[in-house]
DNA sequence: ATCCCGAGGG
DNA sequence: CCCTCTGGAT
Protein backbone atom coordinates (compact mmCIF):
# COMPACT_ATOMS: atom_id res chain seq x y z
CA UNK A 1 0.00 0.00 0.00
CA UNK A 2 0.93 3.63 -0.27
CA UNK A 3 2.15 6.14 2.29
CA UNK A 4 0.56 9.55 2.58
CA UNK A 5 3.65 11.06 1.03
CA UNK A 6 3.60 8.68 -1.94
CA UNK A 7 -0.07 9.42 -2.55
CA UNK A 8 0.64 13.15 -2.56
CA UNK A 9 3.48 12.57 -5.03
CA UNK A 10 1.11 10.66 -7.31
CA UNK A 11 -1.38 13.54 -7.21
CA UNK A 12 1.38 16.08 -7.93
CA UNK A 13 2.72 14.12 -10.90
CA UNK A 14 -0.76 13.67 -12.37
CA UNK A 15 -1.46 17.38 -11.92
CA UNK A 16 1.71 18.23 -13.81
CA UNK A 17 0.80 15.82 -16.61
CA UNK A 18 -2.85 16.95 -16.88
CA UNK A 19 -3.08 20.47 -15.41
CA UNK A 20 -6.32 21.59 -17.00
CA UNK A 21 -8.55 18.51 -17.34
CA UNK A 22 -11.50 20.22 -15.78
CA UNK A 23 -11.33 23.65 -17.33
CA UNK A 24 -12.02 22.01 -20.69
CA UNK A 25 -15.31 20.78 -19.24
CA UNK A 26 -16.21 23.69 -16.97
CA UNK A 27 -17.16 26.05 -19.77
CA UNK A 28 -20.00 23.76 -20.76
CA UNK A 29 -23.39 24.12 -19.19
CA UNK A 30 -24.44 21.24 -16.91
CA UNK A 31 -27.04 19.94 -19.36
CA UNK A 32 -24.53 19.63 -22.20
CA UNK A 33 -21.94 18.09 -19.90
CA UNK A 34 -24.46 15.55 -18.60
CA UNK A 35 -25.67 14.52 -22.06
CA UNK A 36 -22.19 14.37 -23.59
CA UNK A 37 -20.98 12.30 -20.65
CA UNK A 38 -23.77 9.78 -21.25
CA UNK A 39 -22.76 9.68 -24.92
CA UNK A 40 -19.08 9.20 -24.07
CA UNK A 41 -19.63 5.71 -22.67
CA UNK A 42 -17.64 3.15 -24.59
CA UNK A 43 -16.23 5.53 -27.13
CA UNK A 44 -13.50 8.09 -27.74
CA UNK A 45 -13.63 11.85 -27.11
CA UNK A 46 -13.31 12.31 -30.83
CA UNK A 47 -16.52 10.42 -31.51
CA UNK A 48 -18.44 12.46 -28.93
CA UNK A 49 -16.96 15.81 -29.94
CA UNK A 50 -17.90 15.01 -33.52
CA UNK A 51 -21.62 14.76 -32.75
CA UNK A 52 -22.32 17.13 -29.86
CA UNK A 53 -22.14 20.46 -31.74
CA UNK A 54 -24.91 19.42 -34.12
CA UNK A 55 -26.89 17.70 -31.37
CA UNK A 56 -26.96 20.78 -29.13
CA UNK A 57 -27.56 23.11 -32.05
CA UNK A 58 -30.72 21.20 -32.91
CA UNK A 59 -31.72 20.37 -29.30
CA UNK A 60 -30.18 23.02 -27.04
CA UNK A 61 -32.34 22.43 -23.96
CA UNK A 62 -33.79 19.51 -21.97
CA UNK A 63 -37.24 20.51 -23.19
CA UNK A 64 -36.20 20.39 -26.85
CA UNK A 65 -34.39 17.08 -26.46
CA UNK A 66 -37.29 15.55 -24.55
CA UNK A 67 -39.59 16.28 -27.50
CA UNK A 68 -37.19 15.09 -30.21
CA UNK A 69 -38.10 12.13 -32.43
CA UNK A 70 -36.00 9.14 -31.45
CA UNK A 71 -34.91 8.58 -35.06
CA UNK A 72 -33.58 12.12 -35.31
CA UNK A 73 -31.53 11.66 -32.15
CA UNK A 74 -30.22 8.33 -33.38
CA UNK A 75 -29.13 9.87 -36.66
CA UNK A 76 -27.25 12.63 -34.84
CA UNK A 77 -25.42 10.40 -32.35
CA UNK A 78 -24.85 7.26 -34.44
CA UNK A 79 -21.03 7.59 -34.60
CA UNK A 80 -20.74 7.25 -30.81
CA UNK A 81 -21.95 3.65 -30.85
CA UNK A 82 -24.77 1.98 -28.86
CA UNK A 83 -26.91 4.64 -30.42
CA UNK A 84 -30.26 2.93 -29.82
CA UNK A 85 -29.70 2.78 -26.08
CA UNK A 86 -28.07 6.19 -25.90
CA UNK A 87 -30.81 7.91 -27.92
CA UNK A 88 -33.50 6.43 -25.69
CA UNK A 89 -31.50 7.25 -22.56
CA UNK A 90 -30.67 10.87 -23.34
CA UNK A 91 -34.25 11.62 -24.40
CA UNK A 92 -35.65 9.97 -21.27
CA UNK A 93 -33.02 11.79 -19.23
CA UNK A 94 -34.04 15.13 -20.72
CA UNK A 95 -37.69 14.34 -20.05
CA UNK A 96 -36.90 13.46 -16.44
CA UNK A 97 -35.00 16.75 -16.03
CA UNK A 98 -38.07 18.62 -17.25
CA UNK A 99 -40.58 16.61 -15.22
CA UNK A 100 -38.66 16.41 -11.96
CA UNK A 101 -36.49 19.53 -11.85
CA UNK A 102 -37.98 22.04 -14.28
CA UNK A 103 -35.18 21.40 -16.78
CA UNK A 104 -32.38 22.08 -14.30
CA UNK A 105 -29.66 19.49 -13.71
CA UNK A 106 -29.74 18.47 -10.02
CA UNK A 107 -26.58 18.53 -7.87
CA UNK A 108 -27.15 15.50 -5.64
CA UNK A 109 -25.70 12.07 -6.35
CA UNK A 110 -29.01 10.35 -5.60
CA UNK A 111 -30.98 12.61 -7.92
CA UNK A 112 -28.41 12.26 -10.70
CA UNK A 113 -28.17 8.48 -10.48
CA UNK A 114 -31.97 8.24 -10.61
CA UNK A 115 -31.95 9.86 -14.07
CA UNK A 116 -32.24 7.48 -17.04
CA UNK A 117 -28.85 6.61 -18.53
CA UNK A 118 -26.95 8.06 -15.58
CA UNK A 119 -24.86 5.77 -13.41
CA UNK A 120 -22.44 6.59 -10.64
CA UNK A 121 -19.57 7.40 -12.99
CA UNK A 122 -21.59 9.86 -15.08
CA UNK A 123 -23.11 11.39 -11.95
CA UNK A 124 -19.70 12.00 -10.42
CA UNK A 125 -18.31 13.52 -13.61
CA UNK A 126 -21.16 16.04 -13.53
CA UNK A 127 -20.77 16.69 -9.81
CA UNK A 128 -17.05 17.33 -10.05
CA UNK A 129 -16.79 19.00 -13.47
CA UNK A 130 -20.05 20.95 -13.71
CA UNK A 131 -20.62 21.81 -10.06
CA UNK A 132 -17.12 21.71 -8.57
CA UNK A 133 -18.15 19.30 -5.82
CA UNK A 134 -15.56 17.13 -4.13
CA UNK A 135 -16.29 13.83 -5.87
CA UNK A 136 -14.01 11.00 -6.96
CA UNK A 137 -14.90 9.71 -10.40
CA UNK A 138 -14.34 5.97 -10.69
CA UNK A 139 -14.59 4.28 -14.06
CA UNK A 140 -12.67 1.24 -15.25
CA UNK A 141 -9.58 3.36 -16.01
CA UNK A 142 -9.53 4.64 -12.44
CA UNK A 143 -10.20 1.16 -11.16
CA UNK A 144 -7.36 -0.37 -13.16
CA UNK A 145 -4.89 2.41 -12.34
CA UNK A 146 -5.72 2.45 -8.64
CA UNK A 147 -5.12 -1.28 -8.46
CA UNK A 148 -1.90 -1.20 -10.48
CA UNK A 149 -0.48 1.67 -8.44
CA UNK A 150 -1.40 -0.03 -5.20
CA UNK A 151 -3.89 2.61 -4.06
CA UNK A 152 -6.59 0.00 -3.47
CA UNK A 153 -7.11 -3.74 -3.37
CA UNK A 154 -10.84 -3.52 -3.98
CA UNK A 155 -12.65 -4.57 -7.13
CA UNK A 156 -16.01 -2.90 -6.47
CA UNK A 157 -16.03 0.67 -7.89
CA UNK A 158 -17.93 2.09 -4.92
CA UNK A 159 -15.45 0.57 -2.47
CA UNK A 160 -12.63 2.00 -4.59
CA UNK A 161 -14.30 5.41 -4.54
CA UNK A 162 -14.48 5.41 -0.75
CA UNK A 163 -11.00 3.95 -0.47
CA UNK A 164 -9.60 6.80 -2.57
CA UNK A 165 -11.56 9.37 -0.57
CA UNK A 166 -10.09 7.92 2.61
CA UNK A 167 -6.50 8.00 1.36
CA UNK A 168 -6.30 11.02 -0.92
CA UNK A 169 -6.49 14.58 0.48
CA UNK A 170 -9.93 16.07 -0.15
CA UNK A 171 -8.42 18.94 -2.13
CA UNK A 172 -7.32 16.41 -4.77
CA UNK A 173 -10.59 14.47 -5.12
CA UNK A 174 -12.17 16.66 -7.68
CA UNK A 175 -9.48 16.35 -10.34
CA UNK A 176 -8.06 12.94 -9.50
CA UNK A 177 -10.58 10.77 -11.34
CA UNK A 178 -10.60 12.95 -14.46
CA UNK A 179 -6.80 13.00 -14.56
CA UNK A 180 -6.62 9.23 -14.11
CA UNK A 181 -9.03 8.74 -17.01
CA UNK A 182 -6.75 10.70 -19.35
CA UNK A 183 -3.70 8.95 -17.93
CA UNK A 184 -5.44 5.59 -18.41
CA UNK A 185 -6.20 6.26 -22.04
CA UNK A 186 -2.77 7.57 -22.96
CA UNK A 187 -0.31 5.75 -20.74
CA UNK A 188 -1.71 3.27 -18.23
CA UNK A 189 -3.71 1.53 -20.94
CA UNK A 190 -5.66 -1.65 -20.30
CA UNK A 191 -4.00 -3.68 -23.01
CA UNK A 192 -0.47 -2.43 -23.55
CA UNK A 193 0.54 0.00 -20.80
CA UNK A 194 3.27 2.44 -21.77
CA UNK A 195 5.35 1.80 -18.67
CA UNK A 196 8.67 2.99 -20.19
CA UNK A 197 7.21 6.48 -20.58
CA UNK A 198 5.13 6.46 -17.41
CA UNK A 199 5.72 9.38 -15.02
CA UNK A 200 4.54 7.17 -12.13
CA UNK A 201 6.84 4.23 -12.88
CA UNK A 202 8.83 4.51 -9.66
CA UNK A 203 5.69 4.75 -7.54
CA UNK A 204 3.90 1.81 -9.18
CA UNK A 205 3.33 -1.66 -7.73
CA UNK A 206 2.08 -3.24 -10.96
CA UNK A 207 3.90 -6.58 -11.05
CA UNK A 208 3.85 -6.89 -14.83
CA UNK A 209 5.15 -3.41 -15.44
CA UNK A 210 7.81 -3.30 -18.12
CA UNK A 211 10.88 -1.11 -18.01
C1' DA B 1 -10.62 -11.69 -34.57
C1' DT B 2 -10.84 -9.71 -30.08
C1' DC B 3 -10.94 -6.19 -26.70
C1' DC B 4 -12.72 -1.82 -25.06
C1' DC B 5 -15.74 -1.37 -20.56
C1' DG B 6 -21.12 2.38 -19.13
C1' DA B 7 -25.70 1.48 -18.10
C1' DG B 8 -29.74 -1.34 -17.99
C1' DG B 9 -31.98 -5.49 -17.64
C1' DG B 10 -32.62 -10.60 -16.76
C1' DC C 1 -24.04 -12.54 -11.09
C1' DC C 2 -24.53 -12.63 -16.24
C1' DC C 3 -25.55 -10.65 -20.74
C1' DT C 4 -26.50 -7.01 -24.49
C1' DC C 5 -25.94 -2.93 -27.08
C1' DT C 6 -22.25 -0.34 -31.35
C1' DG C 7 -18.10 1.73 -33.52
C1' DG C 8 -13.31 2.06 -33.16
C1' DA C 9 -8.69 0.51 -31.93
C1' DT C 10 -5.36 -3.01 -32.11
From TrEMBL:
Catalytic activity: 2'-deoxyribonucleotide-(2'-deoxyribose 5'-phosphate)-2'-deoxyribonucleotide-DNA = a 3'-end 2'-deoxyribonucleotide-(2,3-dehydro-2,3-deoxyribose 5'-phosphate)-DNA + a 5'-end 5'-phospho-2'-deoxyribonucleoside-DNA + H(+)
SUPFAM superfamilies, A to Z: DNA-glycosylase (SSF48150)
InterPro entries named among the record's database cross-references: DNA_glycosylase, HhH-GPD_domain, HhH_base_excis_C, HhH_motif, Nth
Record note on cofactor: Binds 1 [4Fe-4S] cluster.
Matching Pfam families: HHH, HhH-GPD
Cofactors (names): [4Fe-4S] cluster
Domain of life (superkingdom): Bacteria
Statement: the UniProt record of this protein carries the keyword Transcription: no
SMART domains given in the database record: ENDO3c
One MF annotation (Gene Ontology) recorded for this entry: metal ion binding
Signal peptide: none
One biological process term in Gene Ontology: base-excision repair, AP site formation
Annotated [4Fe-4S] cluster binding sites: 188, 195, 198, 204
UniProt entry keywords in alphabetical sequence: 4Fe-4S, DNA damage, DNA repair, DNA-binding, Endonuclease, Glycosidase, Hydrolase, Iron, Iron-sulfur, Lyase, Metal-binding, Nuclease
Keyword Magnesium: no
Protein role: DNA repair enzyme that has both DNA N-glycosylase activity and AP-lyase activity. The DNA N-glycosylase activity releases various damaged pyrimidines from DNA by cleaving the N-glycosidic bond, leaving an AP (apurinic/apyrimidinic) site. The AP-lyase activity cleaves the phosphodiester bond 3' to the AP site by a beta-elimination, leaving a 3'-terminal unsaturated sugar and a product with a terminal 5'-phosphate.
Similarity comment: family membership: Belongs to the Nth/MutY family.
Protein name per UniProt: Endonuclease III
Amino acid sequence: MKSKNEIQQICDILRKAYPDVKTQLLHRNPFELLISTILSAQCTDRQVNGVTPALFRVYPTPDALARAPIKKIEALIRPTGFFHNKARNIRACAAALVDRYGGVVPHGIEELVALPGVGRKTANVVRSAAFGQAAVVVDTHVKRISRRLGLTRHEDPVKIEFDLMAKVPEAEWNDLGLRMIYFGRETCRARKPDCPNCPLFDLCDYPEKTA
